[in-house]
Amino acid sequence: MKALITLTSSESKRLIARGVKAMPSVQNAQKKHTIIVAGGTSNAFVAEELLSLQIEDKSGYTMGIVTKGELGVSKSSKKTPPYVICKGQALDVSWQEYLPKLQRGDIFIKGGNAVDHTGLAAVMVSNSMGGTIGAAQGILYARGVELIVPIGLEKMIPDVRVAIEFMTKSAVDEAIGHKVGLIPMLGATVVTELTALETLYDVEARCIAAGGVDGSEGSVTIAIEGLDEEVQRAMEDIKSLKGEPPVMVH
């Protein structure tokens, strides 16, 4: 059976968050290890799924934000600091404080701003020290800690490596909004809508189109194929997440 689904940006974020939660390494870390859910609007959905809670203002779970057609910083009055989850329970500790304690089996979850067809993801940073990923990446690489990047296909660009090489040749002189650089997240486990669907259901998933208007900007259209009962199960679940409210900036 083959079926088509179209997801808005926020519906994609919800599906991806459920896919992250269903990953074997995440399930294992939920039971025995620690998960740091760094800032980002997609990560707000991940935190909700992992902790069974609701983050009312998801724009407050991020620092950098792309909104109103420019690169900016979240000015939310309802800031939610990134969660550190140890054996399924949120700790009252900052992620920066816990970072040096990370070890194999733990997981660091970080959103991104770009992904390409090879699965290479990158994140924009305006902080001169490289922001969250600049602080975390060395420890993650040195200790073999899995870096998971939940990222929607709306953020697919032609070539991340080419983009990074272009950006690092010289400094940015002007920008609409904040000036940023681009940092690659090599070796990350990238989770898109396709990964999520293939993790949650025994189906093959392919993105066949993208875009839309009147609230469906950034949407993706995906074809899934598998046994009738698996496709039907996926479709029922997808229908349940239709209508996920868009992420608003408060």
Tell me about this structure:
By secondary structure, this protein is of the alpha+beta class. The chain has helices spanning 9-22, 24-32, 41-51, 95-98, 131-143, 160-168, 193-200, 228-241, and strands at residues 2-7, 34-37, 64-67, 70-73, 83-86, 89-90, 107-109, 114-115, 121-125, 146-150, 181-184, 189-191, 203-210, 220-226. The chain is globular, with a radius of gyration of 18 Å. It starts with a strand and ends in a 9-residue tail after the last helix.
Q: State the total count of DSSP E strands.
A: 14
Strand content: 15-25%
Spans where pLDDT lies below 50 across 5 or more residues: none
What's the alpha carbon Rg, rounded to whole Å? 18 Å
- Strand arrangement within the widest β-sheet reads 6-5-2-7-10-12
Helix content: 25-40%
Global structural class? alpha+beta
Overall geometric form: globular
Largest sheet, in brief, is: 6 strands, mixed
Mean pLDDT: 95
Work out the oligomeric state of the chains in this entry. Answer: single chain
Number of helices: 8
Termini separation comes to: 42 Å
The sequence of SSEs as H and E is EHHEHEEEEHEEEHEHEEHEEH
Keywords:
250 residues; six-stranded mixed β-sheet
Set out the fold topology.
Blueprint: E1 2-7, H1 9-22, H2 24-32, E2 34-37, H3 41-51, E3 64-67, E4 70-73, E5 83-86, E6 89-90, H4 95-98, E7 107-109, E8 114-115, E9 121-125, H5 131-143, E10 146-150, H6 160-168, E11 181-184, E12 189-191, H7 193-200, E13 203-210, E14 220-226, H8 228-241
Summarize the structure.
This protein is of the alpha+beta class and 250 residues long.
